[in-house]
Write a structure and sequence with these properties.
By secondary structure, the protein is mainly α. The protein is built from 26 helices and five strands. Strands 3-2-1-4-5 form a five-stranded parallel β-sheet, with helices on both faces. α6 packs antiparallel against α15.
């Protein structure tokens, strides 16, 4: 039944050779890899104008409002330039590391182990926050239009996260097919918004107020630090760009070239949409409102709130909610792929390395969902509370990528190496500055968690690798030493009574081992009852005529498991641990609730042996029919 439900939810299992058929191209890649970056235009300008809100309140004229918002447009221009610098950096990373890994791969190979692990740690923080932030921002986008959602935000966050998880468990190709319409509808809506704003501006030029340099200079209070803080907030528009370099193998061949083509398409589209949102807000003097995102304000202003205009506003709100929500899909693609790369190097558990029945890293997807839901619940699904953690982790990753490229270019010094080094170094300064500003200005708002989590994760990854290295060393067999069968050995079969289950275990032990003994523990309220039970089992054992020696033990403290453990400890004085085998009878009940009605002595004994001893342990199951 479990298999049927699983097949119904995630689909039929796929063969390994079908992997080539589930890979994606640029068209579907836009739906799988880019929603995180594209969706950030829905809140990046808001984040910049959040910093400007204090200056806007302090100004007394509408002209000053427009001039102050001019700073957000200046920040947008710089961020777009930085996006193209990141494009050149990640294009080279894709070419050099076609198996994926992104900043982690370049950190490990070009900067050193701990640089790579720090990049991986911040990437993981960024991905988990991508799920939490994206879904929360998506619910916030639609909440002003649908009041019921506004009153149950946390519940809808949890439901949407689980739905995205299920879609991703069905496979990369299938999730791409589901999300393609939402991605392109959102792009179309923002472009339509920009075109309509231009047309409305041409028809009614008096409503447009462009800022001037003199006016921007005259605004008091905009110092360099405040501008840099605004710039750092606006850099949230760049989140998700690194996802393409992390997941190169999901593309059809030639996968590296397709990934590079998608990256260029993403940067151009992102820049266009970001310019549209920021410019419309600036020329119309729209201000930051924590309850109504700028895109909603712009659609209400351009299309109106009645008739067809209201329908267009609702469509844009819904498309914004959808792109913000499916932005989490980027993390579900990138993070499990990153974990798989790390597991290949020994830094993550092996269970995240291999793909599941639908040729996706299903264990990683489920694990990512769990972490993201914990964050969502802890931070009450509030974007402003999650963003400080998000910003520091994302821009530290960018910084490591750019720094790694600087080191590699300086080592190789190929054609035009100086120009490449200058471009990457500029990227290091800008992204590193954004990371530093985020860390300082939002430290008390929650960014301090990153400074605790990242070192802890680096330590954990190092310990995992150390364990695997030790395991490999401990299990390595000296092939110059011939294998020799062990002669002196003993097989112990603990039984509670003579029944079908215990006899089945005894028959198995006799058929496969020599020197088999059966052990039973008698524990009762009085010595008389113990004698009666002993006589009974010895009489039944005589009739069984098994040829196996029966050892009867008495437990004065009525602790059956402890008495068996003491007996095994005694045998360890005669035989080495590797020469002792314990065969435990186990009957399997037909219904789940029947398990609650029986002692778990065998399970407890098995757990004790596995954890504390080097003894070989096996169980012989006997299935009950009723």
């Amino acid at each position: 039944m479990v298999g049927t439900i699983k097949r119904w939810i995630v689909g039929r299992p796929l063969k390994t050779k079908e992997d080539l058929h589930v890979r994606i191209g640029v068209l579907k890649g836009m739906a799988v890899m880019t929603p995180d970056a594209l969706s950030s235009v829905a809140y990046a300008t808001d984040q910049m104008e959040d910093i400007l809100a204090g200056l806007i309140i302090a100004t007394s004229t509408h002209a000053y409002v427009t001039n102050v918002l001019g700073f957000s447009m200046l920040g947008t221009s710089i961020i777009v330039g930085l996006a193209f610098l990141l494009f050149f950096a990640y294009r080279n990373i894709i070419r050099r590391y076609p198996l994926g890994g992104g900043a982690y791969a370049i950190g490990i190979n070009d900067l050193g182990k701990y640089w790579g692990l720090s990049a991986a740690s911040t990437l993981i923080v960024g991905y988990t926050l991508t799920v939490a932030v994206s879904v929360a921002a998506g619910v916030d986008a639609i909440a002003p239009v649908i009041p019921f959602i506004a009153h149950h935000k946390l519940l809808f966050n949890i439901i949407l996260t689980l739905l995205i998880m299920i879609v991703n468990l069905r496979g990369t190709g299938e999730s791409a097919s589901v999300f393609v319409p939402f991605t392109y509808v959102f792009i179309g809506c923002i472009i339509l918004l920009g075109v309509s704003a231009v047309i409305k501006g041409l028809l009614h030029p008096t409503i447009i107020e462009l800022p001037t340099y003199a006016g921007m200079h005259a605004v008091q209070g905009m110092g360099m630090f405040l501008f840099l803080k605004m710039f750092a907030n606006g850099c949230s528009a760049l989140t998700g760009i690194e996802a393409v370099s992390n997941s190169v193998p999901v593309f059809r061949e030639p996968s590296a070239k397709r990934a590079q083509r998608l990256l260029l398409t993403l940067v151009i589209t992102l820049s266009l949409l970001f310019f549209i949102v920021s410019s419309v807000a600036m020329v119309h003097g729209l201000r930051y409102n924590p309850d109504v995102p700028l895109i909603n304000q712009e659609s209400m202003l351009i299309f109106g709130t009645h008739g067809i205009g209201y329908i267009m506003t609702v469509i844009i709100s819904i498309s914004t909610m959808c792109i913000l929500t499916i932005a989490a899909n980027t993390a579900f693609t990138g993070c499990p792929a990153l974990w798989s790369s790390m597991a290949r190097d020994g830094f993550m558990p092996r269970w995240v390395l291999h793909k599941g029945t639908r040729l996706v890293y299903s264990n990683g997807i489920v694990f990512l969902t769990f972490i993201s839901l914990v964050l969502t619940i802890c931070f009450d699904a509030q974007v402003d509370r999650l963003m400080p953690l998000y910003g520091v982790s994302v821009f530290y990753t960018f910084t490591i990528s750019q720094l790694g490229m600087v080191v590699r270019v300086l080592k190789e010094r190929k054609t035009k190496w100086l120009l490449s080094a200058i471009g990457s170094a500029t990227g290091v300064v800008l992204t590193g500055g954004a990371c530093l500003i985020f860390g300082i200005t939002r430290f008390r708002d929650g960014a301090w968690l990153v400074f605790i989590c990242v070192p802890a994760m680096i330590l954990a990854f190092s310990r995992i690798q150390k364990h695997y290295m030790q395991l490999r060393q401990d299990l390595k067999y000296d092939l110059t030493r011939p294998m020799q069968p062990r002669k002196e050995s003993i097989t112990i079969v603990p039984i509670a009574s003579i029944n079908k289950s215990s006899v089945s275990a005894l028959e198995y032990a006799v058929a496969n081992f020599r020197n088999v003994i059966a052990v039973t523990v008698i524990a009762d309220d009085s010595e008389e009852k113990c004698r009666q039970r002993t006589d009974k089992i010895e009489a039944e054992w005589e009739k069984l005529n098994s040829g196996i020696r029966l050892v009867v033990l008495h437990s004065q403290y009525r602790a059956v498991g402890k008495r068996l453990q003491r007996f095994i400890e005694f045998e360890l004085q005669t035989y080495p641990p590797e020469n002792i085998t314990v065969v435990i009878p186990q009957f399997i009940t037909k219904r789940w609730w029947h398990k609650l009605l029986h002692n778990k002595t065998g399970n407890i004994l098995m757990a004790w042996l596995v954890i504390n001893k080097h003894i070989k342990v096996m169980t012989v199951p006997y299935h009950l029919e009723r």
